[in-house]
User: Fold these one by one.
Assistant:
Number 1:
Amino acid sequence: MEKTNDIRIGLYLSGEMKGAERSQFERELTSNSDLNAAFSASQRIWDNTRQQESESWDAEGAWNRFIDNNAREQKQAKGKRRSLYWAVAAALAISAGIYSFFIASQSPTSYAYEEGMTTPIVLIDGSKVYLNKDAELKVYPFNKKKRHIALSGEAFVDVAPDTDRPFTVTSSGTLTEVVGTSFNICQLGDKTQIFVNSGKVIFSAEDDSNTAVALTKGEAAVFGNQKIELIPNPSPNIISWKTQELRFAKQMTLTEIVADIAEYFDAKIVVENENTKTCRITSPLSFENPEIKSLLTIVATTVSAELVKEDDTYIIRGGKQCL
Amino acid sequence: MDSIEQLFKQYYPFVCTVIRSYVKDKAITEDIAQELFAELWVKRDQLNIHTSVPAYLRRMAVSRSLNYIRDSKKHDWDELDASTESAPGLSGQSASAIQHMEEAELKTRIDAAIEDLPEKCRITFLLSRQEEMSYAEIAEHMQISIKTVENQIGKALKLLRIAVAEHRGNSK
């Protein structure tokens, strides 16, 4: 369909009209007086359109309302102590905010684990990243096409679904691509291990998409020596550092259970009696916010052993041979 | 003092003015501005701004305004203004009246005429003129076709020429 003169005037004034079309339009302006009149009037209107100044705005009153609303939310979420200090905290925190305001670059924002960190880092799309001890996170600026982060150490990532923008994670030579899921990724020496808690991820070597494997809920894989291997029957306790819950499935051996506990508490635990090591528990156990001593006492009891502590090592001593 | 307070107080009127040009209600404008600064506050650690602060705030204000308008409508953009397709043309005389109008008077008339444009037309025009968005960007923001953007801008200019020349004595 032929474009009307009104449409062409709009295209011209807004700078959408380019090249030959533009020259043609300019030629027509000199020869077509109707077009010229409509154009000149439009151009004058265009040039004199200003930011419409409406009412005056009460920034002072609005600020008080802002402080009120946002300080109260903080208070509800975190208990009473906070609100008093909130204004002070705001002043301190915003200096970091202002800092990023004025940095115009593609460089990533970095985060590191801090002692006692229990809340996730919430990314701009709503995705959450929980960092485990010594972990570091780099968040590259998200754009319309992609969301990308880089991790070292161990982290649990809960990705906000967005089918238009894949979420990718690089972690020591691996590339994980996800579309709305949660998973745990961990570097162990020169290996990288992934455990999928929900949804589906594509896990591959960073520079070789042929290695890609699709993993779904409850599945785990490890990358090392340029190869990806699936981990059969991964322990559900891979994410216990994040969930604060230890779960032991039926048929797990004492060795496996103790390994998970040692990992969780970062403790040294020794099973002295060789005969008890392969004992399997006969019913599933789960512990929320476990405390190491009582947990190990329960575990020791299942094999009729006793728990002793020497220096900083827990020892499961004695016990019967299992069936 | 570098603080959110300073940022807020410095830019609050600016943000409101931008929102107000899209959203006609003053109270709603202030609500949207509050939400905008709250979002800024929550995301303060993740902000990565590649433009100036006012340009960034401006984009936020526009996109929040459009979201509000979209959410508050029961109808699609396309149903908002089916009428006014065949407005009469502009006589050479009116065009010349616009050419010779005194600038202050002209600006006042333009303001009033823009306020009176059909909503879709008005917003499309402002996104182009005020935000300097390309037609493709406007189409994306409003979730309409580029063809529709072309039509709406053309229509806006036509309606503005008529309204400014005639000046129907907008009282508001």
Number 2:
Amino acid sequence: MAEAMLELSGLTKRFGGLTAVDHVDLQIHAGEVVGLVGDNGAGKSTLIKMISGVYHPDEGTIQFHGKEVKMGSPIDALHLGIETLYQDLALAENLNVYSNIFLGREKTKPFLGFIQVLDHDTMHVEASKVLKRLEIEIPSLKSQIKNLSGGQRQAVAISRSIYWNAKLLIMDEPTAALGVAEQRKVLDLVRLLRSQNIPVIVISHQMYDIFSVTDRLVVMRRGKKAAERITKETTPDEVVGLITGSEEVERKAGTGS
Amino acid sequence: MPETVLAARRRSATVLWMGRNWALLFLLLEVAFFSILGSRFQSLENLQNIFVACLPVLILGMGQTFVIITGGIDLSVGFVMGFGAVICAKFMVILQAAGLPPSASIPLAAVICLVVGVIPGFVNGTLVARLKVPPFLATFGMYGIAYGVSEIVSENTPISGLPALAGVIGNEYIFYIIPRKLFSFLVRPGNASPEDMRAMLSIIPTIVAIAFIFVIVFAFILRRTRFGQHTYAIGGNMDAATRSGINVPRHLTWVYVISSCFASLSGIMYALKYVTGRADAGSARMLDSVVAVVIGGASLYGGTGNVKGTIVGALIIATLETGMVNLGVPSHNRYIAIGMILVLAVLIDQFFPELVGKGE
């Protein structure tokens, strides 16, 4: 297999006496969607936060494109191309679509020769290009985020990451607050990203999402990587068993009968 | 499409426009009301007086607009204005005593005042942005400190002995026109006959013109530049702003510095207009500045507001004041009226959120 894009080895994070993430190894390859599942408190979020630069690991290493990286802050992760979409999406609701895509990195043009002013036209055009590439339809890029639906917001957040050359996208519960039709659109978007060779890590509690969109599943339990499965070769029942920790017991019972 | 649907749609668009611009309509009604009841209310002289009267509120409101858009509030502006007036007056007196001509001492004192005016804003901004003190409390602390320091600097008495030129700048006009006879720029004609003096038109008070330049520059910054965009973004979602790589603490510090510099500018204008400096120069103006910004469509939760709205808000307050004087209504009634307008504005914000002026 080709060299992994992201490789975690022995990643560990402790909070006082609690070991939130305990020697986790994980590889992510280009163009694959990996589901990260586990019960509340299993260590998924902590693991993600180490990859996105929010927490510093106590032990272990993170390699990105074959090089070991140490991230001091989320900005460092962004510079590497690791983009994380949290549930709140981090959009400014009072600004419009393209302003959010360009937030913090606005395009400017000179005015009267010496003052740099916002270049709304360029931002509008560039934003509509990236939305088109992702097959996202939003009626007007000048509408404020607060007038958009949950799925459209998710799409804007994804477009922002993609525009800024995300090399790895991490999505935390991307479909949690959405209606059924919108969930489907977001999942289509994840598949589209895969087809464009951008790897995605999806954290989700929704078995349907996990099974419809991922290639591989990583199950976390009590801070440890409890199991790893190719999605096609497993079943929701098995995964639920792995999450709760009852799978080994069931398997023994199964072989007994 | 049937005619009736089109008509209905046009009607609802009109209603929406009226809702969005209720403050502007309110201002026009106010002007109409006082024009009918008052005497010579709509005269050129009186209309220009309204512009002069709105200056303290407008100038304090400019800085307050930036602060409120970020979701904060600056309660210190009134006393920072007093601090500015005292510092400016004091330095005019000191520099004059040091032998500088008024043409040098006045601008120099004004510049010193603006530079010193950075301090309260820097302290406010540092407290709010880096030490996470709620804006309400941080600036309330500065409210007391600025007042106390101004009283010390002014030794509890209004500062007097300013150069006479200060009063000229503060009270004269840009153009003087005697119809068909004379056109004068900046210089008031001294030797005209009494009937010419009566016919003379004085156009654009100098301090209104000075204020206008600052208002235009900062309206431009808010509307057209990255700084303005980031100001709105911080008010909309501070977390999002941080994660987009905006240096939020530094930006907020700048916003509070802008607010205190505008307060100092208002202090300078007070010193020019009244040829004195006193610690309580702007004590009643803090509330007015917040009212002007809120009437102008800004939400105290942050993320919305604009300079155009603040100008309308300041004019509403100034028209009310001027109109009440014109009608001979005792001035304490203005506080009741302004308080009621504030409550009205907040109620509109509360119940018709779709009407609130949107961020650009």
